[in-house]
Amino acid sequence: MKPDFLRPLLGILGLAIGFGVYPLAEGAPQPWPHVLIGGMFVALGLAAWFYARGERWIQVLGALLMLYGVARMLFLR
Q1: What's the rounded Cα separation, in Å, for the pair 76 and 54?
Q2: pLDDT at residue 67 above 90?
């Protein structure tokens, strides 16, 4: 089994970006914080969906992230 070093690197990079960008989006004037953060969740879900390539549980996680992002943009305030 060949180790996949890209996954841990992407995870660490994602966490760093998330913790850095999330506070910046919260500082935007209303209603943009909800739209920006929801859009980030949708983008993360899309990235997970396309990265998964056959791993169903990651694709399900990506779909849930996309649904949460859309709900965050439209309903969760």
Answers
A1: 31
A2: yes
What's 77's DSSP letter? -
Helix intervals (H) in 1-77? 6-26, 32-52, 56-74
Tokens describing residue 61: 């996680």
Euclidean distance between the first and the last CA atom of the chain, given in angstroms as a whole number? 45
Task: Please say if the pLDDT value at position 5 is more than 80.
Answer: no
Q: What is the pTM of this model?
A: 0.73
Q: Which two tokens stand for residue 13?
A: 């990079």
Average pLDDT score over the chain: 82
Asked whether 68 and 57 are in contact (CB, 8 A), the reply is no
